[in-house]
Structure formats: C-alpha cells, structure tokens
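Record type: ASSEMBLY
Status: queued
Input:
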Amino acid sequence: MKYLDEYRDPVLARRLLSELESTATRPWTLMEVCGGQTHTIVRQGIDELLPHGIRMIHGPGCPVCVTPLEMVDKAIAIASRDGVIFCSYGDMLRVPGSGGDLLGVKARGGDVRVVYTPLDAVSLAVANPDRQVVFFAVGFETTAPANAMAVKQAASLGLDNFSVLVSHVLVPPAITAILDAPDNEVTAFLAAGHVCAVMGWTQYEPIAAAYRVPIVVTGFEPLDLIEGIVMAVRQLETGRAEVENQYVRAVRRTGNSRARDTIDEVFTLTDRTWRGIGEIAHSGLRLSEAYRHHDAETRFPVEREATRESEVCIAGEILRGTRLPTDCLAYGTACTPRHPLGAPMVSAEGTCAAFHTAGRGRQATLEEQ
Amino acid sequence: MKYLDEYRDPVLARRLLSELESTATRPWTLMEVCGGQTHTIVRQGIDELLPHGIRMIHGPGCPVCVTPLEMVDKAIAIASRDGVIFCSYGDMLRVPGSGGDLLGVKARGGDVRVVYTPLDAVSLAVANPDRQVVFFAVGFETTAPANAMAVKQAASLGLDNFSVLVSHVLVPPAITAILDAPDNEVTAFLAAGHVCAVMGWTQYEPIAAAYRVPIVVTGFEPLDLIEGIVMAVRQLETGRAEVENQYVRAVRRTGNSRARDTIDEVFTLTDRTWRGIGEIAHSGLRLSEAYRHHDAETRFPVEREATRESEVCIAGEILRGTRLPTDCLAYGTACTPRHPLGAPMVSAEGTCAAFHTAGRGRQATLEEQ
Amino acid sequence: MCLGIPGRIVDVAQGRPRMGTVDFDGLRREACLEYVPEAETGDYVIVHVGFAISRVDEAEAARTLAVIRAIPDALATELGTEP
Amino acid sequence: MCLGIPGRIVDVAQGRPRMGTVDFDGLRREACLEYVPEAETGDYVIVHVGFAISRVDEAEAARTLAVIRAIPDALATELGTEP
Amino acid sequence: MTVDPAAASCPVPRTDSSHIRLGHGSGGQLMAELLGEVITPGLLPPGPMEDAAVLPDPGGDLALSTDAFVVTPRFFPGGDIGMLAVHGTVNDLAMRGAVPIALAVSYVLEEGLPMAELRRINDSVAKAAADCGVAVVTGDTKVVNRGACDGIYITTTGVGRIAPAAAVSAANAAVGDAVLVSGPIGSHGTAILSVREGLGFEAAITSDTRPLHELVAAMLAAGGAGVHVLRDPTRGGLASALIEVAQASQVGIEITEAAVPVPTPVTAACELLGLDVWHVANEGCLIALVAPEAADAVLAAMRTCPEAEHASLIGRVTAGPSGRVTARTPLGTARVVDMLIGEQLPRIC
Amino acid sequence: MTVDPAAASCPVPRTDSSHIRLGHGSGGQLMAELLGEVITPGLLPPGPMEDAAVLPDPGGDLALSTDAFVVTPRFFPGGDIGMLAVHGTVNDLAMRGAVPIALAVSYVLEEGLPMAELRRINDSVAKAAADCGVAVVTGDTKVVNRGACDGIYITTTGVGRIAPAAAVSAANAAVGDAVLVSGPIGSHGTAILSVREGLGFEAAITSDTRPLHELVAAMLAAGGAGVHVLRDPTRGGLASALIEVAQASQVGIEITEAAVPVPTPVTAACELLGLDVWHVANEGCLIALVAPEAADAVLAAMRTCPEAEHASLIGRVTAGPSGRVTARTPLGTARVVDMLIGEQLPRIC
Ligand code: SF4
Ligand code: SF4
Ligand SMILES: [Mg+2]
Ligand SMILES: [Mg+2]
Ligand SMILES: [Mg+2]
Ligand SMILES: [Mg+2]
Ligand SMILES: [Mg+2]
Ligand SMILES: [Mg+2]
Ligand SMILES: [Mg+2]
Ligand SMILES: [Mg+2]
Ligand SMILES: [Mg+2]
Ligand SMILES: [Mg+2]
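Status: finished
Output:
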C-alpha cells in the first residue's frame, strides 16, 4: 500500500538503526505515547534492535485500555437494558469490567453491535426509531472529531433516540502527569502522529520547554518509529528539548482546524480517571451543554457500584523490572493469558505472558534468567 | 377416552345401522350442518354404510371454510403490518385468500402465531405492551363465548394493544337460507351438538315447524351420528318435523345461559357474507358498541381490494352430481389436490380429489363410471 | 366445526374468570370454567378452545348407550350368536 | 492508538457532511471528508474510523524517504556492497 | 498522584464461560478451550484434532445417512436433542440393515446458549452413542449470532456396515407382504407438542426415542431376505412412511386402522388438538414389510426385543392402485390415507 | 339468494412456493414437493428416498469428516455457502490424504428463505460436488421458524478413500520439515468481511474457495511418505493451523513472515480493520509439512497445479519449545505467534 509499504523497508530500517547506533552514547528511556506505535514496536521487535541502553516504555496511549473500569461497567449496564442498541468500536467489546465484558452482554441477549464508524450508529438510530441507540464514544483527540460529528448529525436530524456514552481522553495532560510522577524515568516522548494530525503540536511546546524533555511527533510504521527515536535521541545527546515532527507527510503544526472546531463545539473539558493511572485534571472531554440531550449518562442513570481491580497483580513492579512474574502469587494459576489479572499477562508481548508461553515455572528466580 | 371410546364401538354401530335399515323405506337427503360431523362421517365411511337412498349432504358448518375471502384478505393485510402480532386458531392459517395465506405472511416475516385459546392472545398482549396483538375471532356460536371472554378480559385489563378481527357466523340463519334456496334437496338436519351446548335448541323449533323439517341435535362420534340419522329418518318416515336431541349428555334445551349472556354483552348481530354462499342477513356477530375499542377493523383500516374466487371451478354442479370432475377444464391441470381451485379437490374425500388420486383421466366420461 | 373434547376437572382455582385444570386421559391443561359454574372437581366437561362449554351428564350418557345396546344385533340374531 | 490508514479519494459526493469514496488498494469505503475540505479526487488522505483526518503531503512523504535513503548503509559499507 | 504508566497497558479478554460466545467458534483459543474442556471429553477419542478421522477398512458394503436435528424444546419428556440426534441416525442406518460403525457430530450453537445446557446435551450425545455401541469419530462446532439459531442444532452422520444377508429398501415391498409395526405410535411427536411453548399442556406422555439397530438385527436374523422394507416413521408419521413405501415399490398397502397401536394419552392429545395420529412424528418405532412366509417368525423375534414387545401386524401389501394406502376403518369401510400437506397445526374444527 | 352448500366446503392450502415455509420440512406433501422439485434434481441420484444410502465396499481405509457451514452472507465475492460446504469437506478429507467418494448434505432452512436462493445454493452444491468428482449420496432438509436460522445452514459430511501411501496427520511433523503454503492467504476471510452487513466495504477481494484434493494427490505422488502434515488453515487462520500442528507434533515451528504470500487488497483490509492476516480464515489453500529431502519435489509438484502456482516455502520445523510457533520479522527479530483468542473484531487502535 502506498505510504505504508515504503515505510516498512527493512534495508532502510537497518540504515536508520545504524544511524541511531552512532548517535546514542548514553542510556535513554523513551516513551512512545501511542498504543498503535507500541503495537508496531513489539510486533516488529524494534525494541530488540535498539542500541544497548535505549529503552522504550509503552505509554498509556490506548483509549481502550485507559477507559476507566467504572465507565466500562456503565457501558455494560446500559447495553444490558431492554430496548437499547449499544454500538461500539470492536476493541471495547473485550475490555473486562468488574463482572464481565460487552461480549458477555451480547451473549446473554443484549443488542451490542460493532460499528466501523460512529456515523453507522447514527444510521442505526434512524432505522430503529423505537429503540434507543447508544454509542460508546471513546478515544483520544484523533477519534473525537468523528464522534463529535455523529452527535452533531444526530442533533441536526432531531434524533431523540441517539445518545453517546463519552469517555474521551486527551494526551497532553497524561504526558504532564507522567512527567510529574516522582519516579518518572522517561527522558523523551514520541508523540502520537494521528492525535497531532488533528491537534497539531503547539500544546506540546510548553511541555517540552517546561520539563526540558524532547517530544517528537511520530508516525506508525517501522521507519517512522526508528526515525522518531533517532530524532529524540539526537535531541537528548545534544541537550535540546524541542518539539520536532517526524510525521511530516500527515501532520502540520496547527493540526486540522475544522476538526478541532467541531471538537470544541460538541465537547468540553472535564476531569477524567484513567484506568491504571487515576484521575487527571482536565484530561478528558464530555458533551457540552448544547448537546447534553444526547448524553447517555443522564438518559440512563446507572447505580454507581463499587468497582474493583485485582489486588494481587504486581504489574507495576514487574514492568519497572524490580520483580519477576514468578514472584507473583497469581502467576500461572489465577492469572494466565486467557484469564489475565493484569496488563502484562494480556498479550503475547507482555512480560508475564512471555514467561508463561515460554513455560517458565514458579521455581525460576531472577538469578536463573 | 371416557365419553369418546364408547361412542365409537363398531358392534353398536352395526346395531344402529341395522335399525336404520329397517326404519328407512324411502330415499331421504340429510344435511349434517357441522364440519366436525362431516369429518367423522367421511373418515369413518359412515355415508358408505347408510341404506340405499339415504344421502348425506355436507353443510356449511366449518367456520374456517365460510370465512369470506374478503375477511381472509383483511387478516393477511393486518398480519403483514410491522409491529403486529397476529394470533389465530391453527386452521385459519392455511385458508387461501386472494393472493396467499397467513402461513405465507409468516414465511415472509410477519409475526403470525397459533394460539390454542383466545386467552393466550390476551396474555401475549400483556407480555408485549409495545406491540399490537390482533386475534382472528372466527367461529360459530360454540367459539363465540371464548372469544367474547378474551375481549372482556382485555377490556378489564385496559389493554390498548389488543384487538379482534371478528368474523363470527351463526347457524340458524344459514339453515334458513339453505331451506329457502329454490333447488334445496335437504329433508332433515343434524344440528351441531356443540353449537347447541351453548345456544340450546329453542332457535331451531320455529324453523322445524315453519319448514316442516326434522332437526336432530347430534354429537360427533360414530354412534352419535348414526343415532342422529336414525332419529331424523324416523321422523321423516313418520311425518314428524320436530327438534330432537340425540346429544343428551352435553346439550340442554336452553343451552348455556352464562355463555349466551357473554356473547350478548360483547357481540351484536350483523349481516355476514359466507364464503361459497353469499350474504345472509343477521347471520353473524360483530363487536357491540361497548367493545368497539377492541375492533381490529377500525384500528387497522384496510383498503378494500376486489377479491376473486376461481371462475372455472364447477364445484356446485359436481357435488350435486350433475357433472363429473373430468368435465372441468381445470381438472388435473390447474386444479390438483396440492393446488385446489375449489372445495371438491380439497381433501382426499372430495369428489375431484378422489378422482385424481384414483388416476382417472379427462377422457373418462359419466358412462364409463 | 367446534372440536369439543370431554375431560375431567381435577382442580379448580380461585379468581375471575373461574379457571381450573382439566385432565384428558393423562394430558392436562388449564381451562376456563367460567361458563360451567355448576361443574366441580371430578366432573367431566366438554372443552372447546380452552373453555368448558358444558358439563357432561353421566346419567344421560349411560342412558344413550343403554338404548343403543338394547337394539338387537341383526347379524348376530341371524347367526344365532346374540345372547 | 488510532489506526489511521492512507487511501486515495476516488469520488466526492455532494451534500453535508462532505462524503466521498476512498480506495485502499482495491478496497473501497465511504468516508467523511468534512475535515479535509482541501482534499480532492486523487489525493491521499489518512482515514480513521471512517473520517479523513489529514491529507497526505506527497512532497513531504518523498522527502522523508529521501532523507532516510541518504543514510549510508553501515553493513553494506563494511561489506563494500554499497554502490 | 503516582503514575504507573505500565499499569495502563492493554487489557484482554477475561471471559466468563457461563454462556456460549461468538468467540467459541472462532478457531482460536476460546474455541480450543471449548473443544478441550466441554465437547471432546467423553465424546471423541483422545488425540490430536485432525481434519478428518480415519476408519479402518470396513470390509463390506456401507450405509451412509445424515440428519439435522432442530427440535424445540431441546429437552422434552423422555429425551433431549442430543440423544435424538444419535438415535435418529443410528435408526436410519438400521433401516438399511446396517450396524453403525462411526458417527460424525456437527453442532451449530447459538451465542448465549448456557454452557451447562451444552454440557448436558453433549453428555447425552456421548451416552447415547456409547449405549448404541458406536464411536463418535469426528465433529464440528460452529457458533452463530444470538437469534440465528434456536440454542443448538445437531447434524449427525452415520456410517454403518450392512449385514451380508440384508437387502432392505423402500422399493422392495411385494404384494402379499405383511406390514408390521414395532410398537405404539405417536408418543414422540405428542410429547414434543405437549411441552412446546405456548400450548400449555402438562403431559403424561414421554418420547419413546431409542435405537432400533438391535431390533433390526433380531428381525434380520429371523427373517433374512424376507425382510423387504424397514422404515422409521419419523416426520410425516405413519402415513408418510407407508405412502412413500407404496410409491417406491409401486404397490398398494391396506392397513387395519384398529390394529395400529396408539397409547391413550397420545389419542387424547390428538383429539384435543385435532391432529391425525398417523401424521405425528415417531422416533422409537419402525414399520417392516415382510414376506408372508417370514412374517410370523419376524413378528415373534420382534416381540422378544424390549423395544418391540407390542409389535403388531397392521396390514398387507396389495396390488394397488400403485402408491395408494388405504385404511380399513373400525366400521369396515375403506378410506384413502392422505399425506400431511404442510405442517401440523392445532385445529378448532 | 341461491345457496350452494357444497361450494361452502373446506378449502385447503393453495400455497405459493416463492418462499420456504415451515410445512416444507414437515415430512408431508409440501416437503415431498420441495425435495422432488428443488433439492433432489441434479443433487442426489434418482431413485426412491431411502433412510440411508448404500456405498459399495470401498476396499480400503476411509476418512470421515463433517463440517457445518453458517457463513454470512450466503453469497459472497468468489463463491457461496453451497460451494463452500462442498469444498470445505472435500478439503478436510484431502488433509488426511483421502479422495472423496461420497458426500452427505444436510440443510437447515429458515422459514421465509426465498426459493430462488435455495435453488441457487443447491445448484451450487451440485455443481461443486460434480466438479470435485464426488457424488452426493444422501441428505436431509429441515425447516425452522423464521428467526431461528440465518437463511440456510449446511452440514456436509464426506467419506474418502485414503491413498495407500498416505500417512498424513497433524501429529507427524518432524524437526527439519519444510513448511509450505500452497498460495496467498487471507482472501476468503476478508472477502466475507468486506461484504458483511454493516461494514460497508466494496471489495476487490474474492474468496479463493476451491477443492484441494487434486493438489494433494499431486503432492503425495511427488512426496509420498515424506508428506507429513497437511492442514487447511480455515477458522483461526494460519496462526491456529501452525500452532495446532506444533502442539500435536510436539515441535516448534519458525516462519519467515515476509515469505508468507498475502494479496495486496487483503493487506489493505487487514490494515483498515486492524486484523492480523494470520488469524483470517482461508478456504482455498493448505499448509504442508514435508520431510526436507522431499520438500523440493513437493513444492515443484505443487507449482504445476493451478491451485498452487504460488506455493512457497515459508518456514521450518524446529526442536521447540514444543508447541511454540515463532515468526521471523522483516527486521530479523523473532516474535511468538499467538492464537486468536475470541472472535475477530475491527479495532480502532
Ligand atoms: S488495545 Fe492494546 S494492542 Fe490495541 S492499541 Fe491499545 S495497547 Fe495496543
Ligand atoms: S375445515 Fe374442513 S375438515 Fe375442518 S371441520 Fe371444516 S370442513 Fe371439516
Ligand atoms: Mg480443516
Ligand atoms: Mg437420514
Ligand atoms: Mg431420519
Ligand atoms: Mg470443522
Ligand atoms: Mg433463540
Ligand atoms: Mg428415517
Ligand atoms: Mg471437519
Ligand atoms: Mg473444515
Ligand atoms: Mg432425514
Ligand atoms: Mg434471519
């Protein structure tokens, strides 16, 4: 595919890696913010090819992952109601809430549907005037313009049976929160290319300046990522802390003004809890007053139940490298790839899952590794 | 089964037949009014066992058969509507309208359901408040009390989503119409036992007197029917024309007053068209003013389309014995047991169907029989 | 028309309309007994579309059969097998 | 986050919001073009959840690749196979 | 605020498995689990999942039969869809004089089917197959969207080895053959109807579903080549089975109505709903058309089998009219037996 | 008023047969018509309807395989559910080195299915079977209520004769075996997805569904007992097939990612929806694990067959870890290949 294949060329990747090799003289810890970037890095094994000392930490850039447990539970409660057609992007369907997931709601008879685009949810509302269509509006700044357009569309059609359960989150407050943490180790960020395609990067400039941290707006293909890493390491090595743009083919400094205007019209800033992180002030979007009519939370008040995460999971320590999966009491018993209790058991790339797939038993210790 | 098996005893049937043999001295033409009786007569071959000259004509006593084409078309139109649950006794589902039947509506997506009792249709209305439940209230006097109770029940529950499409017919006006026909050959009637269980037989007394025709209220088992025939022939042979009751175990002269009162409360007399016969004044029931709210005909106005029956069918002549099936242009081509154009091709017992099953070809003539 | 089958009332419920359970040689179904206020548990009723429309009169039923049984069997008489 | 795939606009429809057909190497889907008013038939856009969020700048794309291609291949240089 | 970025990584399916989900049919881990934990144990031989099972050379002619089972409700008095699916196919093999040697079992499951029901049905399949002495050697499981199946449909396909002496076919009836029935008819169909949603009956009727291959073996042992036709009168009932045989063999058949055994509550159900018991489906009985000289021996052999203690002679094959089945009524008259036209519907008249 | 009482007698089903009705599955006249007019002609051999078909002594070991086909939509670019149902089972037999000799076909039809669609699908079954040189010898047809099936489900069961030389099993992979794939992957699954209701794609992708038994015959002729494992990577895709083989044979498998052929539009569809092409279902290709000394000959033989002109060597069997499949990425790193967990869902991230 044009604009994809050429950025996957292994020969050019090798050239960039050799460039990185000659640039990096000291250890640096970089965070790629975006889950899509994490996906490429882990799947292509880019982290394994980095020079010794260059370490990638995977950021909170998966809107699915950071959607708070409470919101997932709310989605499940609404989707379980009679007369509701609950629409969602496919990846939200498997996210576990306190007592199940949306696929389980569907299996028990709820009308849960996967949509490719939020406009499809609007069409469903038009086609089913006697049903309530609820769309689970999750996502970062990239997805917000699409979701906002769906709400505008429903409002202009006068659809009383369309509402959105909004759990939008914003990247810059999360970066700031990470940088504010006392044990922060991140020395540079790869910013998410598609978020910046919408927002531009002006919001990142004060952060880079204030925290003296390089930020490189980066694309999603192997060459993009390695070039982004090269650009960030070059800044670190030379003591710069600027916002640079690797993803020039898609991102301009001021982003997409039409899309931003629509976000501003339909949504307004709010505090938001990030799953695994906690509440971050002004880090999310909710519907603005003008569109409150389409708010699923007010339309379907859900009894706020106590939500709970696993208590035994030591994911944080494992991922910071201070403990091994085999030190975890749940490892291999209560926690397996099919029934993960925490993030590192989730995909084949997670530390715990990798241990488990490799057949490492509880008796293994740090020394044996 | 008690009260059924003992009335099927072939030894006793033979005794009754010999009694009939010794009673009948002349040819008589009897009509059993009721389709249930016809069923027993044809299935058990009772007509074949009657003394020569005693002939049974099968009456219009099938509420399903006499429901006018126009009403079947109306049922089909209503059942085809979105949001309607159309409930019917099973036998109405196969009755052909102008362009199909209710089973075809179901096959094309209509929500058509068979109920055993009209109270089940009321329960469906309770269980589906967002749907319109329509019950096809067909039947003679036997069924009217049950259908009336369903309407009363719905009214007392305040069900706005329950209505009935009423096509009730009454037996005495049909008997009178048959007797009034210039070519009438019927000399005595077996009245329908279950109709009389509800209505009693006082309505038949003026008819018997006015037309000098014996009427015997008769049950449905072989012994009932043969005894009823014996009683009718005995009247004919002795020149009497009274109403007698063969079905003493179930029928009293004044019938069932509670059931009649409920009919009177819920329904009121109306003119009604009988399929194959034509309109008969005051021969049907419609909802009384008090229950008009539950009238499906006013709730779902149906464009009155021109309805049509087959023009080529010569059923009347065939069944009066004046022409043979093989004289019919449609016989064996357009008209077969699976695709009958007229009544005599309908069941294995029909003259045309019997011809067809026996493999008789068009070349056969009356002489060859 | 009007399939009506005799069954025995095995249970009468409270409430309006009057409902009850009718046994048909082992098969049981709820039926409306509103139209047969005189019928009680143990009585036979004729049931049509879930409604009892008539109580079966046992004495009359027996009488009908007795009358028929009293007819001499012509064939048996001829053959001399009639008792 | 935010799966975004480049595709070529093959058709732009009338009406609001601005819609069009985007071709992804043979696979076509309708996409909302409201946010890329400058993009016309033949242009590549990045599509996310059915919305074009950015027009691809062909010149910049080529420049990125050219920069990378200009990096000497260390391994090839070592082996003397670099042209 | 302490930030643990790692703890924010991607979660993954933590599925409860109380109900079937679409993913159970996806060919992935969930499906492997379903097969490994629920379906395979007890049903299929242990070993790797293969695309096809291997059957060692059977050394003779084979019978092959397939049937889909879609019965509603899936649990009914006297049985369930699982055992029915085994008996139905074992019996179809038996109707060609074959002993079952292998079964293939294919499930279509509805998303949302309670796992406990699947276990129960799967156990029932396994038990019925074991009771019939036939191995389930291969299978398949698909999951469809909620509302695209009524819980579970099962297609079983059976391979049988035909007994060397047997030459049984619907086309083999000969004039003079005795028509035998192995037992009372109508129990299965009325048992299903009695519990079908909406009819509201409490039944004293249980389905008589059972395997008939051992009965057939006894009949073939007693009657040899004199056993001309075997048929299990399932859908369409006795009437369809007889008419199909009459048509296939180009003969007439005359049945004595009063000789056909019908249990009392079955009669009651048919009276109440206005059904013809000859049109009601059966699963636990067969009809046999047997050469007159073999009829007594076959009938005697049948009556020694528990599944046919009440076997009866119900009629004879006649010269025709070809394809015509007539019933001799209790009153001594004859009526043409007609096939059910469409589905069976309760009547009011 | 003239009264004609006779004309008032009972009418009867004058059914239009433009759509399937419940009565078409009742075992009565409507069903006999459906079978006689729509289903049997062209599909089943002429002759009486029997409970089971007779297969003459095959004189060797047999393979038996069954699969239910529930694909939505039932017509898709490159095929339909009918041909798929034949190819799927023919291919499963081929994966044990067997040539199909008989097929059993079982339909579950939804009330309301347009008769024209049934004809089209039935014709497709008949044509596919004829093209594969296999006879449909028996079948079954059930009709369920509207809303209890998605139009039509087909279960096919195949009996095959195993080629004398063949000893093919998922458990037979040996260290050093070459892993071959017969052609590009992903076309079938993405063709289905692209036209699935709601996704709104216009596709340039057609399913590559096709029979593979002739290809297998050529491979066995070239490689003999060196052909250790054959597998058609259907549900669960390439990843599941490889992992299942690695587990069954207790070996490791290493695949070179770049060597796996994937058509351009398939890549596009997977990019757009966030799917892993290794998890996408296939119907027109197979993987083979072949002894190293036979690999070249087998690969050459494959490439002479039209269904495998683009056959490729994609990897090797390793000593382990047992059951582990790894992919060598274009960048030269290794990743563990994971099985799809539940169903495939379009992703946004
Ligand atoms: S859900 Fe998981 S795999 Fe998907 S983008 Fe987020 S982190 Fe990556
Ligand atoms: S519908 Fe036909 S069979 Fe039924 S009662 Fe009426 S006349 Fe008799
Ligand atoms: Mg396979
Ligand atoms: Mg079969
Ligand atoms: Mg069968
Ligand atoms: Mg399978
Ligand atoms: Mg269901
Ligand atoms: Mg059978
Ligand atoms: Mg298979
Ligand atoms: Mg298969
Ligand atoms: Mg069958
Ligand atoms: Mg459907």
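Annotation: Helices of chain C lie at 58-69, 74-79.
Annotation: The beta strands of chain C are 5-12, 19-24, 27-32, 44-48, 51-55.
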